[in-house]
Amino acid sequence: MAEQLYKSKITPYVFGSWIMAAFGGLMFGYDIGISGGVTGMDDFLLYFFPRIYERKMHASENNYCKYDDQILQLFTSSLYLAALVSSFFASKACSVLGRKPTILLASTFFMAGASLSAAAQAGWMLILGRILFGIGVGFGNEAVPLFLTEIAPVHLRGAVNILFQLFVTIGIFIANLVNYGTSFLHPSGWRVSLGLAGIPGFMLFIGSLIITESPTSLVERNKKEEGKLALKKIRGVDDVEAEYNEILLACEIASQIKHPFKNLMKKQSMPPLIIAVLLQVFQQMTGINAIMFYAPVLFQTLGFKSDASLLSSVITGLVNVGSTFVGVFGVDKFGRRKLLLQACVQMLISQVATGSILLNHLKLTGSLDKNLAAVVVFFVCFFVMAFAWSWGPLGWLIPSETFPLETRTAGYAFAVSSNMLFTFIIAQAFLSMMCHLQAYIFFFFSAWIVVMGLFVIFLLPETKGIPIEHMVDRVWKQHPVWKKFFDDDEPKDHEMA
């Protein structure tokens, strides 16, 4: 098999490149975690949303509706709308400039967003800062997973790519710690929380100057000798001919495609495109971002005090980080499908249990019993645990490894934009959904989890240990559903790309 011909060893430089690039995930995760905590801070609400603060203070207010405000939700969700649009520009940047400069641009936008958000004196400055954050996220989430997939040796591709998601979880955890600490800094703790987002952005900026460009990107832009040298550098060996020739052939085929987005609409491109988009939709419809964005708000709704709710978020963040390591070490051992299916069962149990407890015991006013509240926190952690080793990292990994080179950046742009679109929808709608559906919102997400399990069983192929240059012949053409999209008499352009 081709993967047996690909020689490599892990050098300190290679490992360092993986870590530095993965700071793009830390940047993304910090923002996911920080926004929910900030929107739960009284000082922040008093400054920008005094009406919500007044509503929150009324003990008789409906537990499920006290944070229902479209502008407050826009503070969180505007980032993802900006990321959605910018992901298509990031796709072009990845192709024309390369993965490395695109990562540098991501860090620059993110640092600008952190500065403006921390200094915001008016609502429009706050939203503009979120938009700059969003552009940074759009560029980073497009370039970093592609970069990690392209520089990883085939037998470690899953683990290396999951470093992105691992750093997302670390970013969320750090954000929860920061929010807990800054909640005691009155009246500007929220400014510190938002401003500190510049640190992961700066780390990614430094990393983008240190890492090497991916060999595929260099050859794709006709820098063949530089590409070969880069391949030797990231593999840690001089004998890279077999893999280099595969990259050359893939790039030669890809160069014949002048309009990758148009080519993405062809019949043969549909299987990876459909899988990529559905993975992003399902990743969001688990309800994970509803929990991560609004964990402090959610726990306050359950009757926790402000500080206690932030501390509970720290606990879920720690569980998130620890559980992602299961994905790092398990994805290339157990495969993608087994992790996804096991997680569906665990997440379904968690959502149904949480919904049942709230439905029967949380009234419109008053608090949840302390023991029951602790049980809810347990099931939230149980849910986060399953997501962290499955749908979280694999939602980014699988699309990055299944597109042929000629449509890879365009296809991945669709994946990123789909993720951001549904993240935007959930972020914008969750608090209103919680107000109207109340405890039934957890049953809403449960139904989606059942659909996701059926999707994995019938439509998702296993990609463990298969070189990305051989996905067509060994994955798509062997699948009982997707093989119908490939005609045997078609040219084998897509096979090697």
Automatic annotation (TrEMBL):
Its main location: membrane. It is a multi-pass membrane protein. It is found in: Membrane. CDD domains: MFS_STP (cd17361). Residues 17-464 form the Major facilitator superfamily (MFS) profile domain. NCBIfam families: SP (TIGR00879). This is OLC1v1020103C1. It comes from Oldenlandia corymbosa var. corymbosa.
